[in-house]
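Holo prediction. Input below; ligand is zinc ion.
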Amino acid sequence: MRDHLSDDALEEYSLDKLSESRSARIEQHLLCCEFCRARLLGIEPVNSVHFTRDGPVYSRITRLATGDMMARHWGSELDGGRVFRSLSAAKRYLSTSCSQMFPEHECDGRCGPTQNRGLMVVPRTRQNPKAQSQKGADSNKQAQAQ
Ligand SMILES: [Zn+2]
Ligand SMILES: [Zn+2]
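Structure of the complex:
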């Protein structure tokens, strides 16, 4: 018998709050457990990537246990997010700030939803040390918004 991931673990994983080793364990479980993969997708109404001049920029909305929506995007030059009460407000935030940051960007065929959250295809963006060091600031922002 196998334990499935807890709701908390899924949420923290979705928000990239977990340590490298814990999130690696969760990824391993997700790779072989369709049930938990579906649950994860269920709390992530938006998961997409845009290939900008600065490299790939990922966007994600996570439905929090509180019912709020955490909208985030991250890439080589940025890492930020905000909490919203509604999905539509979160989506609006992502698209507005994306077009503000990359006004020259025009979507091509590679932009769009990330298949399987990039689990099989593209490694996650954790190898970027700059994004890591900004995590603290990111969670502060989140705390303020709540
Ligand atoms: Zn599972
Ligand atoms: Zn695009």
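Helices lie at 7-14, 20-32, 34-42, 87-101, 129-133, 135-145. That is the main takeaway for now.
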